[in-house]
Each structure stands twice: as structure tokens, then as C-alpha cells.
Design a protein that fits this description.
The chain is mainly α. The protein folds into two domains: about 70 residues, no CATH class; about 220 residues, MetI-like fold. It is about 75% helix and about 0% strand. The chain is built from 13 helices and no strands. Helix 5 packs across helix 11 and helix 11 packs antiparallel against helix 13. The longest helix has about 35 residues.
Length: about 325
């Protein structure tokens, strides 16, 4: 097992490198550069000033050299300096990280808990009227754009309950209850919007297990439905449930970007979107390292949980 973990961690290194390399190349393929960010339409933009700025930022070198220079600094923990904020990228990310983690965790807990319950409930009532109605409603929510649903909910709450997203963000250390009110709506919204897709996955997985021979044998022996469900089915459905947890964590990491933008929350998602608009390449690369590393760690933990839950799975 230790060798497997070490090998997976080593395999994660080229994954993160490829992700940052392709992002670096795609960002540089877009028209405009750091000179536009610094100078804009200023009259101080002269060829001499441009050359001095390019030399200071290291963008006067070919793109491969620029990337390798950034990579060498990143290996020592230096993710560079933001072109827009003129502050270390790592410091800016850590300032926004806590809020994004809060949103992701709350949304994931809501999504995992309710999607598991709903998936099992629908599996035990296959093709019933309630199963068909809920699956139809789920399909509508899966198809609806997330940002449209978020904006619609804001309009509904503001017109019916006189509630609008707070303009000023309050951290958890400043005022716990105000902070809780700020993150409650976006985290809950993302968590419930994730339930339809994940509950369908749980439903199909539980249905596969309910059709196994050992479940039919348990029914033939006269075991109660509750005992069959909790002792035999859910135990063997733990693998798919672990998959739902992994998907929920990964989905929450992406969903927080839209939630932070729609609800004006100063998290990593909003920071990334701002960096893309401003073509702040050091910031984009720094955030991509965090996101890529997060996905690699989630995948590794999910694989290890499979082996822990199912002794038949061996990693060598």
C-alpha cells in the first residue's frame, strides 16, 4: 500500500505540470499581455517603459523560458507576484482559501447526505409514481444553468422575503452569525443543485445490488426489507457512495466559482475569474496548482477508501 501511495504521488507531479503548462500556453495565446494591464491607455506607455517592465516581469523571454523560470520558482514555494495586486500570489490565495473551503465543505455535506438518502429511497421504489416524478424534476434541475438558478433564487428571495446578498463580506473571525448568513444561501444552493445528478447515480448503483442473487436469497429466507437494505445492500453500496463523495467534493470545488461570482463572495473562484479577465498569469498558474493538487489528492483518497472498504481490492 505504501508503495502504491508513493507511486500515485509521483504520478501526480506530471499531472500538475501538464495542467499548468497547458493553462500557461492557452492564456498566452489570447491577445494582449501584461503591458495592457499596467499601462492601459496611459500616456506614460513608451517603448523604453515597456522594455523595462518586460525585463522586470521576465516576459521578454520566449514562452518556454518564461514557464521554466516560473516552474523553478514554484518548486521552492514561490508562485510569483500578482501582476494586478502586486502582492505574492501565495499570500493572496491563502487569504481567499478559507472561504472557498467553507463553501465547498458545506455544499458537499448537504449534497452527499441528501443525495444518498434520496437515491436509496428511489431505488427501493423503482418505477413507482414518486420515482418517476422525482426523476423528471431532477432532469429539469440538471439541465438548468447554475447561474440562472442562482440569480432566480436571489430575485425570489429579494421580492418575497426582502433578502439580498450582503454587499460587504464579513469573515468568520469578525462576526460568526453574520458570516454564517452570508455563506448559508450559496452553499445550500449548490449543495441542493448537486443532489439530482448524484442521487441518480446512487439510485442506479443500489438497483444493481438489489438485483444480485444474494439479495434475492435474503428475500427468499424471509428477511425484512429494512434488514436487507441496511445489512446487505448499503454495505455493498459503500463503493458507489464513496464515488459520490469524490464527485461531490470535485463538483463543489468547481461550483464555488459561480457561487462566489453570483453572490459577490471574495473566494478563490472570484479571484481566478478576475485573474482571467486581467490576464494575471502568475495568479492563474498559482490557483491552477492548488486546484490540480486538490483533484489529485481527492482521487487518491477515494482509491484508498475503495481498498479499505473492499478487501478484494489490492493495490500493488
Amino acid at each position: 500500500m505504501n508503495k502504491y501511495i508513493a507511486r500515485r504521488l509521483l504520478q501526480a507531479v506530471p499531472t500538475v505540470l501538464l495542467a499548468t503548462f497547458f493553462i500557461f500556453m492557452m492564456v498566452n495565446a489570447v491577445r494582449g499581455d501584461a503591458l495592457d494591464i499596467y499601462f492601459g491607455l496611459s500616456e506614460d506607455r513608451t517603448p523604453e517603459a515597456e522594455a523595462a517592465l518586460q525585463a522586470r516581469l521576465g516576459i521578454d523571454q520566449p514562452l518556454p523560458i518564461q514557464y521554466l523560470s516560473w516552474l523553478a520558482r514554484a518548486a521552492t514555494g514561490d508562485l510569483g507576484t500578482s501582476w494586478r495586486y502586486n502582492k505574492p500570489v501565495l499570500d493572496l490565495i491563502l487569504e481567499r482559501l478559507l472561504l472557498s473551503v467553507e463553501l465547498s465543505l458545506v455544499a458537499s455535506v448537504i449534497s452527499i447526505f441528501f443525495s444518498s438518502l434520496l437515491g436509496v429511497f428511489l431505488a427501493t421504489r423503482q418505477n413507482s409514481k414518486i420515482d418517476q416524478v422525482i426523476r423528471f424534476i431532477s432532469l429539469i434541475f440538471i439541465s438548468a444553468p447554475l447561474y440562472w438558478v442562482a440569480l432566480a433564487i436571489i430575485v425570489f428571495l429579494s421580492t418575497n422575503f426582502r433578502w439580498i446578498p450582503p454587499i460587504r463580506y464579513v469573515s468568520i473571525t469578525q462576526d460568526f452569525w453574520t458570516h454564517l448568513q452570508i455563506i448559508a444561501i450559496p452553499a445550500t444552493l449548490w449543495g441542493f443543485l448537486s443532489i439530482p445528478s448524484f442521487s441518480r447515480f446512487v439510485r442506479n448503483s443500489v438497483l444493481d445490488i438489489l438485483n444480485q442473487d444474494y439479495v434475492r436469497t435474503a428475500k427468499a429466507k424471509g428477511l425484512s426489507t429494512r434488514r436487507i437494505l441496511f445489512v446487505h445492500v448499503l454495505k455493498n453500496a459503500s463503493g458507489p457512495l464513496i464515488t459520490v463523495i469524490g464527485l461531490s467534493l470535485a463538483g463543489a470545488a468547481g461550483g464555488t466559482l459561480l457561487m462566489e461570482v453570483v453572490f459577490s463572495l471574495p473566494g478563490m473562484g472570484r479571484l481566478l475569474l478576475s485573474a482571467i479577465y486581467q490576464r494575471d498569469i502568475p495568479m492563474i498558474l498559482g490557483i491552477s496548482v492548488f486546484i490540480s493538487t486538490f483533484f489529485v489528492i481527492v482521487n487518491l483518497v477515494i482509491d484508498l477508501c475503495y481498498a479499505w472498504l473492499d478487501p478484494r481490492i489490492h493495490y500493488s
